[in-house]
Each structure stands twice: as structure tokens, then as C-alpha cells.
Amino acid sequence: MKKIKFGIIGVGRLGYEHACNLASRIPGAELVAICDGNEKRAKEVAEELGVSAVYSDPKAMCENPEVETVAIVTNTASHVEMIKIAMEAGKHVFCEKPLADTVEKCKEAEAIIEAHPDQIFMLGFMRRFDYSYEVAKKKIENGDIGDLILVRCYSQDPRAIIEGTLEYAPRSGGQFIDMSIHDIDLIRWLTGSEPDKLWAIGGCYEFPQYKDWDDGDNVSCLIQMKNNIMAFFFAGRTAAHGSAVETEIVGTKGMLRIGATPTDSLVEVFSENGVCRECYQDFITRWHYAYIHEMEVYCEAVREGKQPTPNVYDGTKSTAIAFNCKESFLKNDLLKMD
Amino acid sequence: MKKIKFGIIGVGRLGYEHACNLASRIPGAELVAICDGNEKRAKEVAEELGVSAVYSDPKAMCENPEVETVAIVTNTASHVEMIKIAMEAGKHVFCEKPLADTVEKCKEAEAIIEAHPDQIFMLGFMRRFDYSYEVAKKKIENGDIGDLILVRCYSQDPRAIIEGTLEYAPRSGGQFIDMSIHDIDLIRWLTGSEPDKLWAIGGCYEFPQYKDWDDGDNVSCLIQMKNNIMAFFFAGRTAAHGSAVETEIVGTKGMLRIGATPTDSLVEVFSENGVCRECYQDFITRWHYAYIHEMEVYCEAVREGKQPTPNVYDGTKSTAIAFNCKESFLKNDLLKMD
Amino acid sequence: MKKIKFGIIGVGRLGYEHACNLASRIPGAELVAICDGNEKRAKEVAEELGVSAVYSDPKAMCENPEVETVAIVTNTASHVEMIKIAMEAGKHVFCEKPLADTVEKCKEAEAIIEAHPDQIFMLGFMRRFDYSYEVAKKKIENGDIGDLILVRCYSQDPRAIIEGTLEYAPRSGGQFIDMSIHDIDLIRWLTGSEPDKLWAIGGCYEFPQYKDWDDGDNVSCLIQMKNNIMAFFFAGRTAAHGSAVETEIVGTKGMLRIGATPTDSLVEVFSENGVCRECYQDFITRWHYAYIHEMEVYCEAVREGKQPTPNVYDGTKSTAIAFNCKESFLKNDLLKMD
Amino acid sequence: MKKIKFGIIGVGRLGYEHACNLASRIPGAELVAICDGNEKRAKEVAEELGVSAVYSDPKAMCENPEVETVAIVTNTASHVEMIKIAMEAGKHVFCEKPLADTVEKCKEAEAIIEAHPDQIFMLGFMRRFDYSYEVAKKKIENGDIGDLILVRCYSQDPRAIIEGTLEYAPRSGGQFIDMSIHDIDLIRWLTGSEPDKLWAIGGCYEFPQYKDWDDGDNVSCLIQMKNNIMAFFFAGRTAAHGSAVETEIVGTKGMLRIGATPTDSLVEVFSENGVCRECYQDFITRWHYAYIHEMEVYCEAVREGKQPTPNVYDGTKSTAIAFNCKESFLKNDLLKMD
Q1: Are D250 and C218 in contact (CB < 8 Å)?
Q2: Which stretches of chain D score pLDDT less than 70?
Q3: By a Cβ cutoff of 8 Å, what residues of chain A touch chain B?
Q4: Pair (D272, D147) in one structural domain
Q5: Residue C85 scores a pLDDT above 80
Q6: What is the domain extent for residue D192?
Q7: What is the band of A264 on the pLDDT scale with cuts at 50, 70, 90?
Q8: Which listed site, B256, C61, C138, D186, has its alpha carbon 20 to 30 Å from D93?
Q9: Which residue of D has its CA nearest to A19?
């Protein structure tokens, strides 16, 4: 099996995770170049991972002919610019979610990618590659739960990390763009449809500062899909129990629930608190293997020369819906899609 | 402890359950009279339970001086008429939910009950008296989960009984009035607030006949309460796993989930299907002890001469909200409450 | 349905529970007489339950012709004497477990009961009447799990009540006779066989005082049944999580686990501790409905004039086995049954 | 981080898994040579994994100077011979469990390894490296559950693979040596002690052919450890639900249960069967990450030049205990250790 040679742009927290995976956890991948605006950081990670080509300028890295594909893990605002640099240098591109911080930039990304149809592009909605989600998707496609009625999605960040959450909040894009976009992608993926109407609500239940950012610390949204499947999502920043992502699919013949008890291990603790399952405290831990598996799928796509999903349009659509949710939330009114 | 002497009107399926409970499962109660429009049925039940006073006419039963209180378990449409008969005969009244099939009748019930302030009245929202719900309520009042953010309620009937469900559907009042009214009551009880805005959706995912009844086989509703707590409920008639009532309360300091696995026993079955918990197939089994406990609470109220809850206003309000949901569902539009 | 008229001997903690059940929670039963060596206690309970016949002398109560059956809930050492008094007075007898504190007394009980074949006798191994155990038994009889391989039984008392446990320990008969006898009965009932060989071990893991009583605070035993089914039981006094009784039956086609999470309600608590189920803290709460149901079964037996199980021989055998376990434990050696 | 260069001997089912892990899933490892008696198989795997040095003779491979360490994944009977070859060639050695098929050979392995004190040796009891077991061990060491009272271990193979199980059975060494040895290792590891007395029982509950191999299809054993902790293990070949390994540790202050529901994913399936969790059907899937993590630990030991555990003595002791269990089982008698 030919190893796909990656250059990575951005080795912050999640970028570092991807770099480690590409360096030594994915049979079909090899990490050959590292780029980060913070050159010191780039050098440290490169040394740790035994990578010799180090850059602070993405363009320079993309001129390296050894690099076959670029993994973009920079801040959201710069994603499309990086896609442009990499695509124009002839590289395949893996880009972290969300695609961009505005719908306009998403459209720009579409144009760039359409102009390079032979280069592979994939967007990093990693939940689709989590084993549990794959199992659920297969059961649905197999007809095990009949026709879909309702998809319910929860995404909760642990209260334990609230300080970091609050610090990042002003530039995060808010709950809908930063957090719920994962659930919006899952809803589209699971229902095979797009929102027809939606209504988003929420508020500041504990942290009034979210108000200043036109946001809430906990929000929810009810969506009527064009194929009439119902969808409901909830996103919160104050979960006492940990990093909880739960998804439920109600069908006419059965129901699936993923992650209702977001357990960190197979250990049950019997104590004064009763019988307890401890939860993930950290999204990178929760999705560790999904991050690996999405790269495996991406490498396979590169090797086979076939465009994978989630693609750029998935990125545009989920971003647009997230902005629709925010609009509905701010107006506190029902929104009818075009 | 003085035993409260009951006459019961209506000994259909649920009425029979109440009659059995009053006859021999509630320390503070005694069943002394039975009335049913179907006199043969009334006699059979009376004989089985050792009750000598049997009636087909509610008025006649209410003239019996031995009867201190009347339990009304007739069809919803006749509830208010029965309340009037019993109240005017000087009896205390326990009335099954829902209070009535129109808001106008609910208002009429209010007037009747207000005219007899010394007679006890209680409405049978039995879920409030289920041990699990009592445990949850206590934890909330104790501040264990902080301030409330979201209440999510599911009520699902088993697909296994769909034939009976369909037969009863046309005269049931529909999902919102017949089924979701329980969740509406729970939402009001748990949040201590009233809906400000709501949007109800749903449809016929398997049984198109619900369309003819201006209803869906599965519906849901998102509610913004006046105190800004979010509420979401879902009601369905096609649950493969059984009679499932689940309620979740998300707070700023923790979450409670009631009945997420609606288990019939403490048995886990390890088989080719994996590790399984079997579910209730029957709402009377699920709420057996809640039905007993609500009567214990009611008897205590009669003995102490203090008006209990849920009261007639709880009945009116939940009915009005259920009709609001139906209106929103039929218009497929957001509804702002007064 | 004819109501069976009970006189109860002994209204301590569990006797009071039985008295309340007989007075008003069992359709086919009526409590007409109360006897307790502590006459003041007898009078208090009688007044509370509306019973007019009060005694401090069991013989006197058994002369009361209104009393059809006697429920014996005295200390274990006096059970057989009470059985004798009641049987010789012509009464049916329900006796709490264990049958007696020596095998000799058990044999004496057998003789008394055999001398009165027309009088009903039943021993109170209430676990057999718990809904979950009934469900499991039915599945086994139905062949759902194939042939039996292993029965595993845990009985744990909550550490929270250790003071009372320690106070009662010296006169309890020890773990095997007081606690494991329930599991011994379950093993006999589930396997339909008797022990062939057994080895009991254990010790004082926290409370050295058990040593003085020839006992351990936690003990276990492996049993080879005559039909070669394996059985293992564990009994402990120091469970942090509550009053835990778990039983597992491994068969060639499946496994059943009862009470692996001994939950007090259907509430899951999501908190800093993870996702927790709270447990029973009290055996009377755990077995509340089993205590009621065993009396229903007993009443039915009296009405029908048919001897029920568990019978006197179940009492003798489980007592003998418990003493065998103790012998094995004290000798720390394998014991071969006759 | 320096990459440790591995040669692997044996690329059957589990050997192939190790080869894949070493080739591309372990940051600190590199697979440089493959040896298998079946040369065709060796070549296929080498080609797939991009390894150029291929051998059918272990000695030849051990002469390759590029190979720093040998991973032995051959049949149990040949382990010690392979250890000898590798050690004498100056290589570090990782050897799959069990160490050998006789205690004599284990002793021989001890002598070989002691003769090469500067070469690292580690035995592959992978369960110790499973995340859930690591979590449990840490909690125990942290005192979270107080002093240990009882360790209970279950190892069950899925009935679904019974044909392969039966085929392999005659040369497997039997339940105690092949399967329970894992639990014996866990018991030693968790209790920090050795057996004082033990009694093993069991039989042929479904497959009489095990009798011919002096074995049972399901067996169990009660062990009294020298520090008086109780241990119980059960091993079976007929589990309907899947590949189930469960371990429970009862302490004076709490209990831990690992793998009580051996779930394959975070998906709960709500269907006619109730609420179900699906289980692992395959031990390689169950222990995938434990196999990776044990190699990470081994590589770290090689890099640091420090002898890791489990070591050769762990291998000898667990093997000796497994033979003791078999002896007790065949004699059906209690066995006292020296």
C-alpha cells in the first residue's frame, strides 16, 4: 500500500493530534512536512515526530514537491485561503471543519475546488467516522429501524473546562457555528435531507457574558426537514458530567441511541454515589479513533482518486444552516428556508 | 386512620384498575359504590370486589350518603358533567386526566369547583406521583442540578398495540390532547412556568390515516417557557420497544434522566441480541404504583381538608396548551401565547 | 374472593411490614389479631392498623377462633415453638425465614407440620416472589437460556448500616445462616438440585470482631450441585453502594442477570461523578412488593387448600446447607455432602 | 524518539495483528523482518506491510543485525525454543502468552532470560494494558475501593465461533491453560498475591467431546490467596452474547466492574428485544488497543533499558497455577499450594 505524503498546516491542539496520527498511527499515511505560523512550535513538533521539512509559510510548504496532500488545521477564518494555496499548488486537501466562518467564503472554496476537479478534497466532520456512528448508519441503511421520524442531537462541553471555553467563545462563532455545526452535519447525513423550517432558542442560563456575543451558553433548535423528518438539537457549555455527544435516531421500526452514556471506559464504579459510569472529559479523547479513521478514509480516496464525503458542499450547507439557526435565535422567530 | 369511602364512576380498563386499588391496595381507602353506564359490567366488578352498592346512573350513586368521594374515570367528554353531579351532591372529587375535551368545559369545571370550596378536588396526572418522578423533583428542589435549562419529554406507545391505538385514535382528541398532555403537565410542574412560544410539527410516518384526523402518528414540539427554560416533547405511536415515557431535566449543575431505559424488571438478558433490558408493554403496568400513590395522596388531602395538586387550573392550562400545540401543528407555524 | 383472616406474632421491623401489608395491601387478606411479647408495641401497631384483638401470649392469640392463619415473624430461635403452638391450635401457618436456628429444630418442625397435613404451611423466602426473579424463572423454564451451567449469587448489606449490623451480628447466626441462606434457597430453586460438594472461605476484611463470632464480614462459597451445575455465592456487610442482591444464571444458550444494578428508581443522575444510578439502601424497600406478593400466593394456597412452596423441607435443607457452609468455612476445607 | 526495530516470528491470526500494529500503528516501533514456518504466508504479509526481510527460519532472522527485538507469536509449545534462539542472538524479546505448555519449559525460559540480564523480556498478557483495566488498577492503587475482598473474573468465548473453538481445543491445553490463564494473571496482578488453596470444577454442559480432552466446556475455580483475598473465575465456550471478559474487584470501600456489558460500540438499539447493547464477537477486536498499548510499553522498556512486567516469572507462576487448577478439576478436590 502506497503511503500518502502529508504536509500539515497548523499544529495547535487538534493540529498536533492530526500530526501525531499522520506520523505513526495511520498505515497509509506519512507526515513529511509541518507548517505553523508559530515557527518555534512547528520545529518542536517536527523534532518530536521526526519530520525534517518545517515551514512557517504555507506557500513555501506547498512548493515542496514531496508533499502530496495538505491537511489544514488552522483557525476557521483562514481555511479557505489555505485551501486556495494548496489547491493551486496542485495538492490534495483535507480541511478541518468548519469550512469557513462565512457562507461567502464557503462559496469561494467551492469555486476553487471545482477548478481542480482532479485533486481530492475532504472536510473533517470526524463524527461520521466514529465507529459507533458507522454502526448506526449501517443499521439505518439496512432498514433495521424502518423510516426515519426524528433525529435528536446533543453536544455538551464539560463545565470543568469552562474557563477555556469562555476565553475562546468571542472568536468561536458561537454555539451554532462552532458546536452545533457537527450536529447539523449529522442531521443532514442521517436524514439525507435539508432543513425546510427551523426555530432556535436558548439563552444565558449561567454565564451572562454570552449575551454580549449574541449567543447563549445553552441553545436548542427544532428543524423540520424537507422530507418531513423532525430534527432537534441541543448544545450546551455547562455539562457537569463531561464531554457528551449523544445522537438518537427514531424510526418507525426501532430506535438507535449513540453515546447516551458517554463512557470513558468499560469500568463501572460502585460507591456511595451508586453505580456510576465515568465520562469523557475531553473531545480529543472521545474522537481519537474517529480522527484516525477519517484520515484512513481520506488516504484511501487519494489513492483511488475518488472524491469522498463530506465534501465542500457539505461544508457550505452546514455553515449556511448554522447561520440560519443563529438568525432564528437572534430574531426569536421561525425561519423558512428557501 | 379513617378510611375514605369512594364511589367510582366508570370501570373500563383504567377505571377497573382504580377500583381494584381503592378496594384493597390503599390503606386509607374503601370502595363502597360502583357506577357504570354498562350495568352488567358494573355488577361484575362489584361482585369481584365485594362492593354491594351498584349503579348505572351517576346521580343515583351520588345520592348514596355512604359515598364521601367520587372517582371519575369515564370518557373525557363527560368528565365535567360528572364533576358537576358529584360536586353538587356534596362529594369530594377525584377526576382522571384530561380534565375535559375543550377549554370551555375546563372553564366550566373551574366555576363548579370554585362554587364548592370546601370539597376537595384533584386531577389524576399520575406521573407526578411515580416514585422516580418524585425522586427527580426532590433533587431539583434541592438544587442538585442547579437552574433548569431544558426539559425533554418522550411519550411512546408500543407498536405492538397499534390496532387498539388506531381504533381509539379518532375519538382520542389526537396526540397532543390525549398523550402529550401528560408531558405538558410535567413541563409545567418541573419548570414552574407557562409556555411563551411554541412550535409543533410531525406527520404520518407510517399510518396515513392520522392525516384524516388532523393528526400525526408521531409529533413533537419545541416550547420556550416564559422563564426562558426550553422544553421539547415528542409523542409517538410506533415504538418497537414498548411503552416508553422518558423525561430529562438539564440543569446548570447536572442532569436527570427518568426512564431512559423503561425496564420492566431488574433482569438483563444476555443473548444473541447482546445485553438487553426488556421494557414495559403496557401503561397500566408502568404506572401501577403511581396510580396507587396518587390515591393515597388524594385520601390524605380529603382527611386533612386541604386542596391538593394537580388542581382544576392545572387541568385547564394543560388542555389549553395541548390545543395550542395542535393549532401550531395544523398551521405549521410558531405560536405566541398571550 | 374470601378474605383470609390473619393473626400475626411479632411486629418488630419486618413483622410491622407484614402487618401493614396484611392490613391493607393484599386484596385477599385481613389482619384480625396482633401478638407481640412487647405488649405496648403490639397495642400501638394494633391501634394504627385498626386491629382490635391484641395479645402478648401467642397461645392466647391462637385460641381466638376468628384467626384462620398465623404469620410468624418472631426471632429465628422461637420459630418452631410458634409453629407448634399455631399448628396444634389448628391454624394455617406462614413462617418467616429461616425456619430455625438448628437443623434439629427444623426436623422437629417437619414432624409437627406432617402431623397436620390439612393445614397449609409456607416459609417466607420472599425473593422467589420478586417480579424480577419470577421473570427469570419463567425464562429458564421456557428454555430461553438452555441448560444451566452456573448460578452466581451476591448478597450485600450497605456499609451505611454497619452499626446496626454489628450489633445484631452475634445473635444473627452469622453470614451463612442469616444472609446466604437466601442465596442457598435461590440456588436450590433455580438448579432444582442439592449440593454435592462445597467450599466456603472468607474472613474479616475490615471488622475483626467477626472473628470472635466464628464468622467473617465477607464470605463466599463454591458449590458443585449433584446435577453438576456450578454455584457460587458471596455475602458481604460492607457494600458502599447499598443493599445489593444480584443473581446470575449462565446457561448454554444465554445468561440472565438480576439486580446487577440494584436501582432504587428509573432516575439516572448525570453529575461530576459521571452517569449514576442510585441503589436501594434498605432491604425492606427492595423487597416491598415481593413481601406483598408472597402473601398473595400464600392466601391463594389457603383458599385452595393446596400446599405451596417454599415448604418446610426447603427450610430444613437450606438451613442444613448453611451449616455445611459454616463448617467448611471454619475448617477451611472442602466438604462432601452425604 | 528512536524507533525500535522488530522481527516477528509467526504471522498467523494474532501474529498478523501484531505485525500490522508494529508496521504502522505504534509510533516507537518499526517492523523490519517477518518469519513464518509457512514461507508463502510470510511473504504475503511482508509484501502487504512493505517489509523486505522475509524468513522461514527463526535462526536466520535472528542473525539479521537490523533486528533489535523479536516478537514471538508462534504456537505455545515452541515459545521457549524461540526465546532461546532470540536471546542467544542478542535480541530483546516480546513473547505472546502463555509462556509455555509445561512448567518445566517455563523454568527453562527463566534460565535463558536470567542468562541475558541486559536484554529486555516481556510477556504478552495484554489485558493489563487495556484502558479499562488501567483505569481500574489506578483506582485500586489510589485506595478508592479500600482493601480488596474478592476478585471475580469471567472469560467467555462466543458460541458463534464454536466450530473453530472445538477444532482448536485438543491442542489448546484446555480451558485453564488456554483461557483462564488470563484471569489467573489478572488475579495475581490485582491482588498482589499467590494462591494458597484452590478448587476447580466444571464439566461438559453441551459439548461432551471436552471430556475426551480431560476438559470441560465451562469451568470455574475458587481461590483463596495467601493474603486471604478471595478470587473466583469462570471460563466458558458457549456465550450467546459474544466475546465477554468481565472482571470485578470488591473492596471494603467500593466495587469496580470492568466489561460487565462488553459493548462493541456506544450504540443502544431499541427494538422488539428491548433496549440492547451489542457485544464484541471477536477477541482481537475487543483487545485491539490493548495489543497496541502493550507494544508501546514494551518499546519504552527497550528504549529505557528497564525490565517491564509481566515478566518471565509471571509466566511461570500463571502457568503453574493453571496446571494446579487442572489438577484440582481432574481430581475434583481441593488443592493446597506449597
Answers
A1: yes
A2: none
A3: 145-150, 152, 159, 197, 199, 201-203, 205-206, 218, 220-222, 224, 228, 230, 232, 234, 236, 238-241, 250, 252-255, 260, 332-334
A4: yes
A5: yes
A6: 128-282+318-336
A7: confident
A8: D186
A9: D27
Same-domain pairing of C163 and C39: no
Choose among B36, B75, B30: nearest CA to B57. B36
pLDDT at residue A338 tops 90: no
Report how many helices (DSSP H) and strands (DSSP E) chain B contains, helices first.
13, 15
* E-strand stretches of D79-182: 92-96, 121-124, 148-158
Complete DSSP assignment for A249-289? EEESS-EEEESSS-EEEEEEEEETTEEEEEE-S-HHHHTHH
CB contact under 8 A, B272 and D239: no
In a domain, D15, yes or no: yes
Q: B329 and B227, same structural domain? A: yes
D-contacting chains (≥3 CB pairs under 8 Å): A, B, C
Tell me whether residues A258 and D266 touch, CB distance under 8 A.
Answer: yes
Looking at residue C2, its pLDDT comes to 83
Distance (Å) from the alpha carbon of B152 to chain A's nearest alpha carbon: 10
Distance from CA of D51 to the nearest CA of A (A): 11
Residues 6+ apart with CB under 8 A from C86: C9, C58, C62, C70, C72, C93
Residue A312 is assigned to a structural domain of this protein: no
To the nearest whole Å, the CA of A255 is away from the closest chain D CA by: 5
Query: Burial code of A254-267, b = ≥16 C-beta within 10 A, e = fewer?
Result: bbbbbbbbbbbbbb
Domain end (from D119, D137, D158):
D119
Question: CA C196 to CA C179: how far, in whole Å?
Answer: 21
Asked if pLDDT for residue C1 goes beyond 80, the answer is: no
Q: Do C175 and C237 have their domain in common?
A: yes
pLDDT interval class at B40 (50, 70, 90): very high
As for how many domains chain B has, the answer is 2
Q: Measured between alpha carbons, how far is D338 from D336 in angstroms, rounded to an integer? A: 7
Residues C138 and C257 in one domain: yes
Q: Please give the average per-residue pLDDT across B147-161, as a whole number.
A: 97
What's the confidence (pLDDT) of residue C260?
Answer: 96
Q: Average model confidence (pLDDT) for chain C?
A: 97
pLDDT confidence of C223, banded at 50, 70, 90?
very high
| pLDDT for residue C312 is more than 80 | yes
Question: Which among D257, D180, D260 has a CA at the least distance from the CA of D223?
Answer: D180
Contact residues on chain C for D230, CB-CB shorter than 8 A = 201-202, 218, 220, 234
Please report which confidence band the pLDDT of residue C58 belongs to, taking 50, 70 and 90 as the band edges.
very high
Instruction: With respect to residue C309, please indicate whether it lies within any of the assigned structural domains.
Output: no
Q: What is the pTM of this model?
A: 0.96
Place of cell 529505557: D304
Shortest distance, CA D258 to any CA of chain A (angstroms): 4
Q: What pLDDT was estimated at residue B27?
A: 87
CATH of the domain at A48: 3.40.50.720
Q: Tell me the pLDDT band of B230, cut-offs 50, 70 and 90.
A: very high
One domain for residues C162 and C91? no
Residues A24, D23: C-beta atoms closer than 8 Å: no
Task: Spell out the alpha helix ranges (H) of C75-180.
Answer: 79-88, 103-114, 131-141, 162-168, 174
User: Least CA distance to D260: which residue of chain B?
Assistant: B275
CB contact under 8 A, B274 and D239: no
Last residue of a domain, which of D119, D151, D172? Answer: D119
ipTM score? 0.96
pLDDT at A285: 92
> Quick check: is A67 in a domain?
yes
> Are A138 and A94 members of one domain?
no
Compute the average pLDDT of residues A177-206.
97
H or E element in which residue B298 lies: helix B288-304
Q: What subunits make at least 3 CB pairs under 8 angstroms with B?
A: A, C, D
Verify that A210 and A324 share a domain, yes or no.
yes
CATH at D221: 3.30.360.10
The distance of B258 to chain D (nearest Cα, Å) reads 15
Nearest Cα neighbor of A101 from A123, A126, A79 is A79
Q: For residue B278, list chain D residues with Cβ-Cβ distance below 8 A.
A: 273-274
- Rounded to whole angstroms, the Cα distance separating B324 from D119 reads 78
Contacts of A268 in chain D (CB under 8 A): 256-258, 260
